[in-house]
UniProtKB/TrEMBL annotation:
Pfam families the UniProt entry points to: CarbopepD_reg_2, Plug, TonB_dep_Rec_b-barrel
Protein name in the entry: TonB-dependent receptor
Signal peptide feature range: 1-17
Family named by the database record: Belongs to the TonB-dependent receptor family.
Residue span(s) of domain TonB-dependent receptor plug: 118-223
Keyword Membrane (UniProt): yes
Protein source organism: Aequorivita marisscotiae
Listed SUPFAM superfamilies: Carboxypeptidase regulatory domain-like, Porins
Topology in membrane: Multi-pass membrane protein
Subcellular location: Cell outer membrane
Gene3D superfamilies per UniProt: Carboxypeptidase-like, regulatory domain (2.60.40.1120), TonB-dependent receptor, beta-barrel domain (2.40.170.20), TonB-dependent receptor, plug domain (2.170.130.10)
Keyword Transport carried by entry: yes
Domain TonB-dependent receptor-like beta-barrel: 344-731
Length: 768
């Protein structure tokens, strides 16, 4: 009874509150046609509503003068100022025009606050879900290949773990964020890039270079922020893609999404589910796989709720499960295969954000929490040739377990000052705490990583619009890492000058650090020369620091039907006490390497971007990087070979391009290209592998060309579209052709594109 009484009083209060307010209503249209689900709201506040499928909206306001904004994706926004007296009925209609979205994209990663991309003092690159679909990306790793300055590489012939290189720096130098939260632990980073299904992603924001040090440890190379699906309007989609990999293996991917948003647009949720099944692929017919068998299931939800007109609650939770097996292709338990790796991952991750605006919307407070837990069972083994050693092996096969727990909690305060030294500014300050506990053990190899890192960070930032065309961003972050005996101060400065509406010049400087801890590649055990290869940390390992500079010019010219532009960015990063792997020689199980501090290293280069869009009929996007990556002094990679200054596995040239042709809304054709230049890698000898000596090897360059075509049939009576699509990935079969053979292979000897020629076809059912 109490519940009903409370409910009645609550409802009566709401009704009474609305009775005393004025009603704002109208229709949002374009060229006389309604725009379904357009958003209409009070500028700088949270009052507003979502239009219905007929473009009609309604909400309530108190007395006062307000600027009302109407906006919808794909259209220019329109604002109108009105003055309301008590209990009025105000009719306010909006007529929006279709727009070119290129110049109006809003990003959050550059400053931790929402800004138009062209107004951000830090370059932020974007790839959205539509582009991910056009390039037929199945996961996060696939999608990141189409970003300037980024390269995704496969580092193990047996398990195919991937890592991202940003401006030439390997995975441990990049911070991976999920919805802005650093819950991507080192172990998650080892296989996680392939475990994030593409239908979980709304867009990916990328900040290159050390100016992203605002996010703390390990953001030296840059930051990748994965924004998960945002509930916008009621819709659904279900797709199935079948791939034939070189005619020898197949992959089947099923993705589903459903979004529900209530009529008042104050609550909504997006649900996603994904199933992936791939058989193992053997490139050189030695019955050992080059692509592992994969079975994965993922599901989750992203939701929001507006408890009041000036507050917002956002929640996301995802479950990722993956089974991965590579090595000898036999129908036996992993330990009975001559050589194999087997992994079973269960990953649970989520985040919770609460934001409240106050002080006439000049101030906002965000409180957030994120967490991730990974449980992994794994096996990495090779059956010895010696009979006595075999008995010992089968008595205790090298199975292992991993447990990882990551938490992040924090608070961020933003305050706008409309009059600040002749301009206006946004002050941002915050405090956050990250806890990461990694336990990874294989008793048979006497291998153990038991590492707990704790980092308490505080950050301050002043985002100052000195004039309309000049912005100066200054800030710093102080971190106390439990594996470093002192606090680390990381400042950053950025300057933006806008020349008219077409051109932006940017300068940036920042410092950063990496804690003396294990990163993704350190947690991977590889096969080499008839044994395994392991990495450990030196006892006296200490933090590595960076000093980064960037300078860029960005130009975009828009006309009624055409927009084209380019970006040229130079980057320079000096690493002090840079980490490198020192060879310790062999023990009973194989090669051992130790992570040590070196003298230093420098990464520098230039990234070029080009883009063009003609009425969304023809769209071009391309990026190309020219760089060098050198240690100050040559480092020893293996005892039998000379030391080298060059970073291994790091090409000096790489890039991508995508071209989309959309003659009608029903038909689209996409071509994409990924180029990887030559690079030096290490190739270790092994008996009966085809490699008799240890040597450095300069890989050839690769150009990977793919095509996709899709056609949508509209079933208007049920508001449903049926898209048929198909194409070929890696048409020219640009793929490594000199893999090692057999169980003693050097599994790190893998380079170039991640898969051979692949023919695919699919069907997608979606709401229209």
């Amino acid at each position: 009874m109490k519940f009903f009484q409370c409910f009645f009083l609550f409802s009566a209060t709401i009704v009474s509150a609305q009775v005393n307010k004025s009603t704002i209503s109208g229709t949002v249209t374009t060229q006389g046609n309604p725009i379904p689900f357009a958003q209409v709201f009070v500028k700088g506040a949270m009052q507003g509503a979502s239009a219905d499928e007929d473009g009609k909206y309604q909400f309530y306001l108190d007395e006062g003068t307000f600027t009302i904004v109407a906006q919808s994706q794909g259209y220019t926004s329109e604002s109108k100022t009105i003055t309301i007296e008590n209990k009025q009925f105000v009719s306010l209609n909006f007529e929006l025009s279709e727009r070119n979205e290129e110049l109006d994209q809003v990003v959050v990663t550059g400053t931790r606050t929402a800004k138009r991309r062209v107004d951000s003092p830090v370059i932020v690159n974007l790839i959205n879900s539509e582009t991910l679909e056009k390039v037929v990306a199945t996961d996060l790793a696939n999608g990141l290949r189409f970003q300037p300055g980024l390269r995704v590489e496969t580092d193990c012939q047996t398990c195919n773990y991937t890592q991202i290189r940003m401006n030439g720096l390997q995975g441990g130098y990049s911070q991976i964020l999920i919805n802005g939260r650093s819950i991507f632990s080192p172990l998650t980073g080892l296989y996680g890039l392939e475990q994030i299904p593409v239908n979980m992603i709304e867009r990916i924001e990328v900040v290159r270079g050390g100016v992203s040090a605002l996010y703390g440890s390990s953001a030296i190379g840059g930051t990748v922020n994965v924004i998960t699906k945002i509930p916008k309007q009621n819709n659904y989609s279900l797709s199935n893609t079948y791939e034939s990999i070189d005619g020898k293996a197949y992959q089947n991917v099923i993705n589903g999404n459903a979004t529900v948003v209530n009529k008042d647009y104050n609550a909504g949720a997006n649900f996603f589910v994904s199933n992936r099944n791939r058989t193992a692929y053997d490139a050189n017919d030695d019955n050992f796989s080059e692509l592992p068998e994969l079975k994965s299931n993922s599901f989750g939800v992203n939701a929001f709720y507006l408890p009041s007109e000036n507050s917002k609650l956002e929640m996301s939770i995802s479950s990722l499960n993956e089974y991965r097996y590579g090595g000898e292709m036999v129908d036996k338990p992993a330990y009975l295969a001559n050589q194999s790796e087997e992994r079973t991952h269960n990953v649970l991750m989520g985040s919770l954000d609460y934001q409240i605006n106050f002080n006439e919307d000049k101030s906002s407070l965000i409180v957030y929490y994120g967490a991730q837990k990974t449980d992994r069972d794994h096996y990495t083994g090779i059956i010895p040739d010696d009979q006595a050693e075999q008995q010992a092996f089968f008595a205790a096969p090298p199975y292992g377990v991993s447990e990882v727990t990551t938490y992040q909690g924090g608070a961020q305060y933003n305050h706008k000052i409309n009059s600040f030294l002749g301009g206006k500014t946004v002050l941002t300050g915050g405090l956050e705490y990250v806890y990461d506990d990694v336990f990874d053990q294989i008793e048979t190899y006497n291998y153990l990583t038991d590492q707990t890192t704790k980092n308490l960070g505080a950050f301050v930032q002043n985002d100052w619009d000195i004039f309309k065309n000049i912005n100066f961003l200054s800030g710093f972050r102080i971190d106390k890492h439990n594996l470093v005996d002192h606090a680390i101060f990381s400042p950053r400065l950025s300057l933006l000058y806008k020349l008219k509406e077409t051109t932006q010049f940017r300068l940036g400087w920042g410092t950063g650090f990496r804690g003396p801890q294990a990163f993704d590649t350190d947690l991977h055990i590889a096969f080499a020369g008839g044994g395994v290869s392991r990495i450990s940390l030196a006892e006296d390992l200490f933090e590595e620091k960076s000093n980064s500079f960037t300078a860029s010019v960005n130009y975009d010219k828009a006309t009624e039907h055409f927009i084209a532009g380019f970006t040229v960015e130079g980057f320079y990063t000096h690493l002090k006490d840079a980490f490198y792997l020192f060879p310790l020689g062999e023990d009973d199980y194989g090669e051992r390497f130790e992570k040590r501090n070196g003298n230093g290293a420098t990464v520098k280069g230039i990234t070029l971007e080009a883009r063009a869009n003609y009425d969304y009929l023809l769209e071009l996007d391309a990026g190309f990087t020219i760089q060098s990556s050198l240690f100050n002094e040559a480092v020893l990679n293996i005892d039998s070979l000379p030391a080298k200054r060059e970073f291994l596995r790091t090409p000096n040239n790489y890039g991508y391009a995508t071209l989309t042709y959309t003659p009608t809304k029903k038909l689209s054709a996409t071509a994409n290209l990924v180029y990887t230049g030559t690079m030096d890698i290490l190739h270790l000898a092994g008996p009966n592998t085809g490699q008799a000596i240890n040597e450095y090897y300069a890989t050839p360059s690769f150009t990977e060309l793919s095509l996709r075509m899709g056609y949508t049939i509209n079933l208007s009576k049920i508001n449903t579209g049926l898209e048929l699509y198909g194409g070929v990935k890696n048409i020219t079969n640009s793929y490594q052709n000199d893999f090692d053979f057999g169980k003693n292979r050097d599994s790190n000897y893998v380079y170039g594109p991640g898969a051979p020629r692949t023919v695919f076809a699919g069907l997608k059912i979606k709401s229209i």
